[in-house]
Amino acid sequence: DNRKRVAIVGGGAAGMSAAYALSLCPGEFEVVLFERSSSPGGMATSTPINAKKYGASYINDGVQGGSPVFGNTYSMFEKLGCTPSEVGFQISFGREVGEDYWSNVFPAALLDQHKDSIKRFSTFLKVTSNPVLEPVFGLMPIHLSLTLFRFPKTFAEALVFPLVALFMGTGNQTPYVSTAIVERLFTDKSMRLFDYSKESFVNGIPEMRAFPCLGEVYRRWKKEVESRGNVEVRLRVEVTGMQRSVKYVDQSNGQKREGVKIYSRATLGTNNDQEIEGYAGAETEEMFSDVIIACDADAALKVLGKDASWMERKVLGNVKYLWDITVTHNDLGYLEKYYRVRFSDDLPSKKRLAEGDEETKKAVEFAKDNFNPLYYVRSYPEDKKKIEMSFDLTNYQPQFKGESPFGPDHVFQTIFLDKDGSEGMWTKSEIDKEKVIAEKWWKQQSHRWQHYAGTVPWMMFLNGKRHTYFAGAWTILNMHEIAVCSGLGAAYRLGAPYP
Fold first, then answer.
1. What are the distances in angstroms from CA 3 to CA 13, 30, 252?
2. Which domain holds residue 290?
3. Confidence of residue 249 (pLDDT cuts 50, 70, 90)
4. How far apart are the C-alpha atoms of 269 and 235, rounded to whole Å?
5. How far is the CA of 271 from the CAs of 297, 321, 322, 327, in angstroms?
6. Per its record, what are the GO molecular function terms (predicted)?
7. What is the predicted pLDDT for the residue at 497?
8. pLDDT tens digits along 369-405
9. Bridge-partner residues for 389, per DSSP?
């Protein structure tokens, strides 16, 4: 048997994408994917809820949806017979009129206050998108570049940071995100979701895609990759260590080879804190030709252990992780206390309406009957650079379609970010405990500028060394599409087709 024997560590979007590409060549690859939890998908999970009470039998948590440009993700979903749903991306930022409230559904008074800054932002985008200056702005955090261009602090905190945090999932690390990455969110056709507007900052309600039931997607994905007989997905098995560049004799043909020794152990699955519940057997070892490490950078370093090179320790060790907690609940009172959930006549810009602005009139008329935000974002009064986000899953996810605003209780999800740096400002205790459906901890990478200086550009020098390839959204940007592309890319480097 001259097939390459490939180990994949991690069954999230990156690992499953690599497994799919390698499964297309059963004559060339034999693959074992190790996943420590009881189901594949990583952060892309589904949770059952009371259908009679809420109007749907499950929610997607961790990952909700994505931009229409996520071509690889949607292509994979369609192969599996799972179709995403189109949804209008309505957002409600802040709460207090004239202080921090605005929306992309209609112009608010806050936009009038910052009209000069909004217009100047076009110059900012032109300068920061200049290829000659890209190395500079690639390493400059957005808070510093906005200060350099003399934008008011209130403009950054009320408009720029919440919008970027929402789209990139950067949370309280948003001020430290690379300026070049922020610029691309507005200008790059393959990344942008919003079109910049000199009048309203962002132009209208873009189309988003809400993901189908992710539990079902990944069940089908597992079945698909195993269907050709050359891929084995081992759930509840944790890779505990590895040795690379190991000389061994291939028992199938007697050939001398060099590869990777993988140590693994069966687990009892993981809990909501992403911790192993316990172990179900002794440690075993196996030989592989190559390994694709598709778990987070911290876990990768733990698995590599003493076998990690100096450069791997520096590059992967530079990835900073934060702990967030999501509270899924149906406490409408909490949402109404901190956000604007419903349209009211005091929200739109009175100035623009008085001036007879036709676009504003149309937007307001639309909002009167169709104001159904998917996302809510607010800044903490103690530190306006730090935020809290909430989702209305009933408005967002397709399984709730047909439920009226006055139907079953809406299901909300509120995310409290950065436990170590922000827990003192959290208002989590104010959510009615009787209305909490679920709580879950998530380990999230930081998108600080140091990530784009000390990790992203150096990954090319790690991949392919000592039979090792790295994949995962953390290698660039925390998006499902990036995870899928990185997994397909790792498999491609091993010789698999790019599907």
1. 24, 6, 10
2. 4-47+213-319+450-493
3. confident
4. 8
5. 20, 19, 18, 15
6. oxidoreductase activity
7. 96
8. 999 999 999 999 999 999 999 999 999 998 987 555 5
9. 377, 415
